[in-house]
Write a structure and sequence with these properties.
With 305 residues, the chain is an alpha/beta fold. The protein has two domains: 11-133 and 290-303, Rossmann fold, CATH 3.40.50; 137-287, Rossmann fold (3-Layer(aba) Sandwich). It has twelve helices and nine strands. Strands 7-6-5-8-9 form a five-stranded parallel β-sheet. Strands 2-1-3-4 form a four-stranded parallel β-sheet, with helices on both faces. Helix 2 (57-68) links the parallel strand 1 and strand 2. Helix 2 (57-68) packs across helix 12 and helix 5 (134-148) packs across helix 12 (284-303). Bound molecules: phosphoric acid mono(formamide)ester and norvaline (NVA).
Length: 305
């Protein structure tokens, strides 16, 4: 009998309870890390990791996470594979499924990742596409809740570009029940239908071009780089986004106990100042650490352990 593999492609594919269960598992694995209780639930399992774009956190957290769960990894880059010479994504998926037990992929083309998942007979995990970064937002919500309790009913403010990380925050909002205030320049605003979809799903989301308005009463201020992988109009983006820098002044317009998050890598002096990155409200390195724990929660869910 065959059953569908458990893919982790977009937060929108899940209900809130499932995502919460993955985070509960991540928390449990974090607590028993490096103790005999941790066990080796993925012993004998192999994860193939395909990177078409650079990565520090995603690559290392999946690799270490898989090893800590008792499994092994194979690191591949698109250019070194026959994918780079035109082998189709679906043939690649079918072949890899015969060798490995799960595939994690970072590739800008979101549809290609979906295609890979459709053809694969093992779980496929989205390690970032141009359209979403679900693993990051799992770690972010885990971090928020460790610092400030349940995110339900709290306010998260985004100041910056509309990109893959924001898209996953938007998908998370109705599923975790937090308020999301988005500030971007008008020219870079999220597509109206994306916000409308999340609102139909019950999200409390607003958009403004004024970053000060967005951070008012926020429990958490989030930003990301102004130029994401694959963006070609760096100069234009820098000009448009200057006013959205998260600096001390903007942070002081949020709640006094607000935290600051950034998926990293940060471009200090651009989207965030040193003062905020290294300041008392910043939780960015705990957030980066939680990539490891959240990834382990996702892996455990994909493998059903
Ligand atoms: N935040 C994040 O995904 O970082 P990497 O690009 O280093 O994986
Ligand atoms: N928005 C960024 C995230 C990097 C982790 C990018 O896509 O480059």
């Amino acid at each position: 009998m065959t059953h569908s593999p458990r893919h982790f492609i977009d937060l929108a594919d899940f209900g809130g309870a499932d995502l919460k269960a993955i985070l509960d598992k991540a928390g449990a694995l974090k607590r028993v890390r490096r103790t005999p209780e941790a066990g080796k639930p993925l012993a004998g399992k192999v994860l193939a990791m395909i990177f078409e774009r650079p990565s520090t956190r995603t690559r290392v957290s999946f690799d270490v996470g898989m090893r800590e769960l008792g499994g092994e990894t194979i690191m591949l880059t698109g250019a070194e594979m026959q994918l780079g010479r035109g082998e189709t994504i679906s043939d690649t998926a079918k072949v890899l499924s015969r060798y490995v037990d799960a595939i994690m992929i970072r590739m800008l083309d979101h549809n290609a990742v979906r295609e890979l998942a459709e053809a694969a007979t093992v779980p496929v995990i989205n390690g970032l596409t141009k359209l979403s970064h679900p693993c990051q937002i799992m770690a972010d919500i885990m971090t928020f809740e460790e610092k400030k309790g349940s995110i339900r009913g709290k306010t998260v403010a985004w100041a910056g570009d509309t990109n893959n990380v924001l898209a996953s925050w938007i998908q998370a909002a109705p599923r975790f029940g937090f308020k999301l205030n988005i500030a971007t320049p008008e020219e870079l605003a999220p597509r109206r239908e994306i916000i409308a979809l999340a609102q139909r799903e019950g999200a409390d989301i607003s958009w403004t071009s004024d970053p000060y308005q967005a951070v008012e009463r926020a429990d958490c201020v989030v930003t990301d780089c102004w130029v994401s992988m694959g963006d070609e109009d760096a100069g234009r983006r820098h000009n448009l986004l200057k006013a959205y820098q998260v600096n001390k002044q903007l942070m002081s317009a949020a709640n006094s106990d607000a935290i600051f998050m950034h998926c990293l890598p940060a471009h200090r002096g651009e989207e965030v100042t040193d003062e905020v990155m290294d300041g008392p409200q910043s939780v960015v390195f705990d957030e980066a650490e939680n990539r490891l724990h959240a990834q382990k929660g996702v892996l455990a869910w994909c493998f059903g352990v």
